[in-house]
Amino acid sequence: MVDVPQLVEQARQGRPRAVARLISLVEGAAPELREVMAALAPLTGNAYVVGLTGSPGVGKSTTTSALVTAYRKTGKRVGVLAVDPSSPFSGGALLGDRVRMSEHASDPGVYIRSMATRGHLGGLAWAAPQAIRVLDGAGCDVILVETVGVGQSEVEIASQADTSVVLLAPGMGDGIQAAKAGILEIGDVYVVNKADRDGADATARELNHMLGLGESRAPGDWRPPIVKTVAARSEGVDEVVEALEKHRAWMEEHGVLAERRRARAAHEVETIAVTALRERIGDLSGDRRLEALAERIVAGETDPYRAADELVDGVTNGG
Amino acid sequence: MVDVPQLVEQARQGRPRAVARLISLVEGAAPELREVMAALAPLTGNAYVVGLTGSPGVGKSTTTSALVTAYRKTGKRVGVLAVDPSSPFSGGALLGDRVRMSEHASDPGVYIRSMATRGHLGGLAWAAPQAIRVLDGAGCDVILVETVGVGQSEVEIASQADTSVVLLAPGMGDGIQAAKAGILEIGDVYVVNKADRDGADATARELNHMLGLGESRAPGDWRPPIVKTVAARSEGVDEVVEALEKHRAWMEEHGVLAERRRARAAHEVETIAVTALRERIGDLSGDRRLEALAERIVAGETDPYRAADELVDGVTNGG
Questions:
Q1: Greatest CA separation for chain A
Q2: Ordered strands of the A110-114 beta sheet
Q3: Which helix (H) or strand (E) holds A113?
Q4: Are A18 and A75 in a shared domain?
Q5: pLDDT above 90 for A225
Q6: Are B196 and B59 in contact (CB under 8 A)?
Q7: B260 falls within a domain
Q8: Are residues A121 and A4 in the same domain?
Q9: Given CB atoms, is A85 within the 8 Å cutoff of chain B?
Q10: Which of A171, A288, B32, B164 has the most C-beta neighbours closer than 10 Å?
């Protein structure tokens, strides 16, 4: 038996093993999941959640690590959730990054957690917000969520942050890639990392153009800043923190932060509800009902819509 | 009022406007959608569905066009469903490709349809199988489904084909990209296009290695062939058709074709059912129930799971 109240209390005290245990319970959809979530509810809502996304190779891990250092200097407790197969946290990256991050490993004010990407749609989007909740409830002031910027589910995760940072690097054709993945639309702050390389100014200009930042905006509108950094040497990182704090202040002033959090919670609830309903369908297919319907469709005896009606009836009427 | 039986009859006769109309009804989730699907059910199951996927720039459209020509030579009726923002069919590609495809536009034995990618998860995966059903019911012998090979939803669409073709081109780092997107696992046939370029042999070798094609397999197992093509000059395209026909024969011999179609139908039904249930949740949020729950979560008064329980109860008990 897991003593959930004790675990939550230990997590509040900043014990990393308790935090790790809670996230594992959440991630693995353990029987205690609901008890954990209920216990955390009154403790959440304090963390500032920053999403960082970008193509592989732009320096997300290095930037994340530099941001951790910057926030630690101001005494903040920092949580890092790395949702990235190429991240050092999940073991796929360069030794340099790993060493870089390991300096934070011994800091009790930093909690680092990696999360493997799941194979099915919605899987990750479902687990990440719960892990964020654990870090929030454990007293993190800032949570950095690092995701690799390809695919819809990563965009979805990034959209669950209070502030989304999109990273680019010169000469990687990132502009096009980013536009394709739809991540250009989600940035509140843009970072052109590796700004000591050729083409950094061109990348910033291209970005400025693509985002229409030169155009006039209504007063009070947020104009996403483009910050140039060399994260490996911590250059420009304080400016990123400054941009983040400005965005946060702007959101609070305009009621955007509360609105984003409501939208995030609504999305979270909907995802969980849909997952639960999907599971009920899965239970139905346990008695071969789904398989039998599929056979009838292949045989041309019914169509997918009539078949779906039967499934829905089965779920909603307990049939 | 739409006369669905008449439209279906005209589509059977190969009238492109009727086919276009049916797909539009299906894509737009028109009120007639269910009637269309019911009318098509007994007419489907004859088409051989081939999925083609790969990164932008590998020559998917050119290869698709060359395959259309090859199949037309054997008198087959061919449907093309292009699910790709960079495809000529949806207007984003090079003039050369457009001209190339336009030769088929006047051929009554070819039906070409583009499909825009949707913004939300599951949207496209939901519409594409229905469009395939229309083309199948309209009497296409072969349906080529061209998708851009990035992201989970494209992989999902490709997995709904009878045979999946993964395209690569030399010198694009495609191996890594493909592995990342998970598309390397889905290929039944691999095509290294632009094989007249430097590095084609290296790409084929790398692919051969990554797929473990050098390793021994159980007798009767399918060993995905790697075909080198220069689609722009139709070189190797007959070999691709041959590989497709071999795969189809192998699937029929081993009961794999029927199994894949059953799995596809099951997935389709499940997707429709989940979408229907999601819509019911959407209806609930119409009366601000979801919003109210979200506010209570943000305030720490409840957690997402308890909130989701309320939503699910509302859906399943009509509450």
A1: 68
A2: A110-114, A78-83, A142-148, A48-54, A163-168, A189-192, A226-228
A3: strand A110-114
A4: no
A5: yes
A6: no
A7: no
A8: no
A9: yes
A10: B164
> Do A33 and A4 share a structural domain?
yes
Which helix or strand (DSSP H or E) is residue A16 part of?
helix A16-27
Asked if residue A48 lies in contact with residue A141, where contact means CB atoms within 8 angstroms, the answer is yes
Tell me, yes or no, if A90 comes closer than 8 A to chain B by beta carbon: no
The C-alpha of B27 sits at a distance from chain A's nearest C-alpha, in angstroms, of 14
Distance CA A288, CA A281 (A): 11
Residues B234 and B224 in one domain: yes
| Model pLDDT for residues B120-176, shown as the tens digit of each residue | 334 455 678 888 999 999 999 999 998 865 555 556 666 679 999 988 888 766 555
Q: State whether B24 and B12 are in the same domain.
A: yes
Q: What is the pLDDT of residues A21-74, one digit of tens each?
A: 998 888 777 788 889 999 999 999 999 999 998 877 888 889 999 999 999 999
Match 């909603």 to its residue by tokens. A316
> A114: closest CA among A149, A131, A90?
A90
What's the total number of domains in chain A?
3
Q: Chain B residues with CB inside 8 Å of A131's CB?
A: none
Tell me: the pLDDT tens digits for B254-297? 999 999 999 888 888 888 888 888 777 777 666 678 888 999 99
**pLDDT digit string, tens, across residues B99-130:** 456 677 778 788 888 776 543 334 455 678 88
Cα(B132)–Cα(B124) distance, integer angstroms: 12
Residue B215, domain CATH: 3.40.50.300
- Let me know if residue B293 belongs to a domain: yes
Q: Number of helices (H) and strands (E), helices first, in chain B?
A: 13, 7
Q: Is the backbone of residue B199 left (phi > 0), alpha (psi -120 to 50) or beta?
A: left
Question: In terms of domains, do B158 and B17 share one?
Answer: no
pLDDT mean across residues, chain A: 81
With CA atoms as reference, the chain B residue closest to A262 would be: B294
Residues B20 and A213: their CA atoms lie apart, in Å, by: 40
Q: What distance in Å separates the CA atoms of residue B252 and residue A116, rounded to the nearest whole number?
A: 37
Q: Which of A254, A282, A303 is the last residue of a domain?
A: A254
Which residues of chain A lie closer than 8 angstroms to B85, CB-CB?
180
Does A202 reach chain B within 8 Å, measured CB to CB? no
Strand ranges for chain B from DSSP E: 48-54, 78-83, 110-114, 142-148, 163-168, 189-192, 226-228
Is A179 a member of any domain?
Answer: yes
Question: For B273, which residue in chain A has the nearest alpha carbon?
Answer: A308
Residue spans of alpha helices (H) in B74-118 = 95-105
Answer whether B29 touches A (CB < 8 Å): no
CA distance linking residue B298 with residue A267, whole number of Å: 12
Assigned token pair, A210: 């693509």
Domain end among A254, A282, A308 = A254
* A33 lies in the same domain as A160: no
Range of A153-162, A200-209, B91-100, B277-286 with top mean pLDDT:
A200-209
Nearest CA in chain A to B179: A85
Give residue A92's pLDDT: 33
Interface of B with A in 232-251 (CB under 8 A): none
For A316, the closest of B274, B309, B316 (CB atoms) is: B316
Sequence-ordered alpha helix ranges (H) in B114-236: 123-137, 152-158, 174-181, 200-210
**B164 and B312 belong to one structural domain:** no
Q: Which domain holds residue A302?
A: 270-316
- What lies within 8 Å, CB to CB, of A265 at 6+ separation is B293, B294, B295, B297, B298, B304, B307
